[in-house]
Design goal:
With about 250 residues, the chain is an alpha/beta fold. It contains 9 helices and 7 strands; from the N terminus they run E-H-E-H-E-H-E-H-E-H-H-E-H-H-H-E. The longest helix is centred in the middle third of the chain and has 29 residues. It is globular.
Amino acid sequence: MELSFKDKIVVVTGAGRGIGRSIAERFAELDATVILSDYNEESLKDVAANFEEKHFSFKTIPCDVTNADQVNLMLKEAVDSYGKIDVLINNAGITRDTLLIRMKDEQWNAVLDTNLKGVFFATRAAAKYFMKQRYGRIINISSVVGITGNAGQGNYSASKAGVIGFSKSMAQELAGRNITVNVIAPGFIETEMTNVLSESVKDDFINKIPLKRAGTPKDVANTALFLASPLADYLTGQVIKVDGGMVM
Ligand code: NAD
């Protein structure tokens, strides 16, 4: 079966670079119309130029996921433009790593506001449309550290564990309207987020990965394609680790 997302409207937050950009690109390659959203307008311009060259169907709508008004407006603009949305990918995320004793309130709040409250804002806004349509696919990007925890990432792992609990609750709340909610928990993926790590930390990670390589944004994107496709119509409330076997 050839996957096609023709006539599907797919919203991706944090689409300016990394995993979000790759997810947007894979959907566009399979003929979806993609709403590229990010708070970094420069990177959105860069993606837009690239998508135009490739003749992809897309629209950029800048939005900071920590701001409920901006999130509501972004989804309204998407629906006003195309009459509906089919898929929401909550991907925008940040890290502010530090040990507990040194963690400032701002570092805690910034990470929880972006990674968890942002998912709540966008899910709430999109659910309004999905419920009316009696169709929707929500894919939330968590992390394996939301399952295992990680020293130095108390804020980040709390936010990513929160995403898993929230997604399972929403899967139960929204299933009656044919809305599925699933989670992708990536392991160690090569992006600008992980580029800040030293070579020795990267090597340590890779040594712990049975498949002996870092993941690529495309590895994550391919799982998002599956979860948004009819192949996954009977999956909801699930957490799929895309981590080369790092966490079993
Ligand atoms: P990245 O830093 O390369 O990209 C994140 C994107 O989100 C950026 O374009 C940034 O501008 C955008 N963003 C950040 N805050 C935002 C906000 N408030 N509103 C709108 N956009 C915002 O990161 P990435 O590695 O591509 O990560 C993407 C997602 O995958 C994140 O949720 C991250 O936590 C998760 N993840 C990444 C890895 C990894 O190894 N890279 C592993 C597990 C989970």
